[in-house]
Amino acid sequence: MAILVTGGTGYIGSHTVVELLTHDFDVVIVDNYSNSNPEVLNRILKITGKRPRFYQIDIRDEEKMRDLFIKEKITDIIHFAGLKSVAESVAKPDLYFSNNVGGSKVLLRLMDEFGIKNIVFSSSATVYGVPDHVPLKETDKVGGCTNPYGQNKLDIEYLLKDYASAHSNANIAILRYFNPIGAHPSGLIGEDPNGIPNNLMPYVTQVAVGKRPFLNVYGDDYQTVDGTGVRDYIHVVDLARGHLYALRKLAEKPGLVIYNLGTGRGTSVLELVHAFEQANGLKIPYQVAPRRPGDVDENYADCIKAYEEMGFKTEFDVVDACRDSWNWQKNNPNGYK
Ligand code: NAD
Ligand code: UD1
Q1: Which one of 89, 96, 146, 179 would you pick to mutate in the ligand 2 pocket, going by the greatest count of ligand atoms within 8 A of its CB?
Q2: Nearest protein CA to atom 12 of ligand 2, as residue
Q3: Cα gap 337→333, rounded to integer Å
Q4: Which residues contact 94 (CB under 8 A, 6 or more apart)?
Q5: What are the tens digits of pLDDT across the range 105-134?
Q6: Closest CA to 65 of 97, 98, 30
Q7: Which residues pair with 31 in a beta bridge?
Q8: How would you label 5-17 residue by residue, b for 16+ Cβ within 10 Å and e otherwise?
Q9: Which positions of the chain have pLDDT values less than 50?
Q10: How far away, in angstroms, is 227 Cα from ligand 1 center?
């Protein structure tokens, strides 16, 4: 009886593994370290007192994955493994399709072969494309993705829907994450991007630690409270907890279910910068830059379904997330390296 966590040494995966181990789940991680570091396993041990079983495998390697399934008695899968850089996906669409969609196909074939019924999948709010209203509900239209990464997420959602149609005993939770930020309050695990961060919070923390001189605020003429883009920032520990709620839901044999995981509240770029300054007593220099292609004015979740059907609600706010992101960054200025 073990939970297989693909991509379990990554940012969201590592926080989820900590929650699983803390709640006495038996955890097996598979990761190829394409965007993570073996040091994560030592940090997980420090936090939880437990070292999960680990396999360094590319999930597309069907033979090695089959050996893993023969060795381990897997009952549930949480599937995080994937490449996630929007810009890289535009430059390397074949790699993204092969890794993200191809890797998911291998997992589904092995689920079928080994009679594994339950899977939780990391989808994204990006599947809603350019929203014509907020907050976004799970029943709102999807599609119109502006980059291969987003299209991969949608393709995998459709693969899962087809799999559910063909396997009446399969239980599948598609979780559409909004914007995860923050880090474990211990400061031992957190987000460790390669190179120049694309996302807002890791950029802010790198400005705070002196690695970058200032933040570029991409556009101040959006139709929002202060002209800067509004997003739904969810603390990564809350997001990680959401996966335990999803596993509990799957135990009720619901078939295929879809949930937004966010806070239901929008925060602008400048509001986030000010929350960071307030939480940490620091000043973040910034300058307004042109809009970033593909960005939307506002994007935040309607979270009622996750609450009504799973009892899930967030416990942390953006100020907590700003404190914890900074605690991680200042204790690990070079991430895990
Ligand atoms: P991450 O890059 O930190 O973690 C992904 C992990 O998967 C990494 O450890 C990487 O080494 C591993 N991996 C990638 N391809 C693999 C393969 N073929 N075989 C084995 N391991 C592989 O990313 P994250 O932020 O933790 O995101 C986890 C999942 O959540 C991803 O699927 C991502 O698309 C999705 N998601 C993330 C966000 C976000 O903002 N972070 C938002 C929405 C959805
Ligand atoms: C981005 C991706 C999205 C992906 C998500 C999580 C794009 C267009 N979208 O979403 O597909 O699912 O990350 O990985 O890349 N901002 C700045 N300065 C910065 C960085 C960001 O002002 O240096 C602004 C952005 O314009 C946006 C907000 O901060 O308004 C949040 O940006 P980001 O963290 O990149 O998340 P998303 O744009 O929501």
Answers
A1: 179
A2: 126
A3: 9
A4: none
A5: 999 999 999 999 999 999 999 999 999 999
A6: 30
A7: 56
A8: bbbbbbbbbbbbb
A9: none
A10: 31
